[in-house]
Every structure is written in C-alpha cells, then in structure tokens.
Amino acid sequence: MKLHIGGKEKKEGWSILNIQKNDDVDYVGDISDLSQFKDNSINEIYASHVFEHIKFIDAKKTLLGINRVLVENGKFYISVPDMDVLCKILIDKKKDPKIKIHALRMIFGGQTDEYDFHYFGYNFELLRGLLKNVGFRNVEKVKTFSLFNDTSDYAPYGEPISLNLIAIK
Questions:
Q1: How far apart are the first and last CA of the chain?
Q2: Of 115, 110, 109, 106, whose CA–CA distance to 19 is shortest?
Q3: Of 142, 168, 152, 166, the residue nearest 52 (C-alpha)
Q4: Given 3-state DSSP classes, what are the helix, strand and coil percentages for the chain, each rounded to the nearest 5?
Q5: Nearest Cα residue to 5 out of 73, 53, 39
Q6: Strand partners, 82
Q7: Domain coordinates in residue numbering, the chain
C-alpha cells in the first residue's frame, strides 16, 4: 500500500488519507492518528505540506505512528515549508512587502479555513533530527520527489520554498 496523506488528486497505486472528506479520499483522518492502519502495512507514505499543521508537542508521537505503519525499508516522503528559505525572504530588505506577506503566509499557513494554520516550522537540521530520533535510518534531502504536482515543487521567487526529505525506516 502507498498512502498519500493530505492528498486531493487520485493517482494510480496510491490511497488518499485526508482530514476532509471528498470524492477521491479513501480514508478520513489525519497524520497524527494512523490507528486505522496496521503495523508494518504501508510501503510508502507521502505527506506534502501536512506535518507543519501538527502541534510540536505532537510531532514525535506523529512520527512514531508513521514509523509504526511503514514496512521495514519503507519510505516516508515529507515536504514542509523550509524555514531557512522563508526567513531569508522575510529579512531581505530589497523584497517587496507583498512578497514578505506571502512568505509569512507560507510560514503561518494561508489561514483560508480552520485547517490552514501552521503550528511549527522546520529546517533540515530540526526535521532530520526528529526523524532520526524516532527510528528512521536514512534521511536524505532531495530537490524534488517527482511524484505529485503539489507545493513540494513550489518556487514562486526562484528558489523552492519546500524542504523535501526521504526517510527510510
């Protein structure tokens, strides 16, 4: 099984888990509670711009849950807003205020509905450390996953704003 957490578009071979029910959603729920899935039952998990919606106090428990449901050598593709990139935009005195506001919305969430808020921000060192702490063996930073057409490849000002990691159980 391959699970796309927070997904909206159907893709052959992938099931969708989303907090909001729609026609293409296979499982209703969120990344912080994967109790509906058995231990070692999922080969790959993809979560693009979902993890920052989890409170930091729940981050370790959430990652332990992901690790639990992945098979041995299973892959976890995780993409979050890259705080290093976004903070550079924010402190750049030459950037237009509209660009800075856009960067702030990527940091704190677009705030378009009750779910569109970010609780925490990550850079490579912080997220890699959390992943290693819960038992992921290898954590690799990649430019793109080339799996879905989503925010993981978003580069509105030239440089991608996402931190994309592949973690192996």
A1: 15
A2: 115
A3: 152
A4: 30, 25, 45
A5: 53
A6: 122
A7: 2-81+118-168
**Rounded Cα–Cα distance for residues 24 and 18 (Å):** 10
Judging by beta carbons within 10 Å of its beta carbon (0-12, 13-18, 19+), is residue 78 exposed, middle or buried? buried
Two structure tokens written together for 156 = 């509105």
State in words which class domain 2-81+118-168 has.
alpha beta
The two three-digit tokens of residue 92, written as one number: 């750049």
Of 39, 91, 110, residue with least CA distance to 69: 39
d(CA 95, CA 23): 40
Per-residue pLDDT of the chain in tens (169 residues, 90 and over written 9):
999 999 988 999 999 999 989 899 999 999 999 999 999 999 999 999 999 999 999 999 999 999 999 999 999 999 999 999 999 999 999 999 999 999 999 999 999 998 899 999 999 999 999 999 999 999 999 999 999 999 999 999 989 999 999 999 9
Residue that has been written with the tokens 């080969």 in this structure: 43
Burial status of residue 151 (CB atoms within 10 A of its CB: 0-12, 13-18, 19 or more): middle
What whole-number distance in Å separates Cα of residue 111 and Cα of residue 86?
Answer: 17
Is the torsion defined by CA of 99, 104, 106, 112 positive or negative?
A: negative
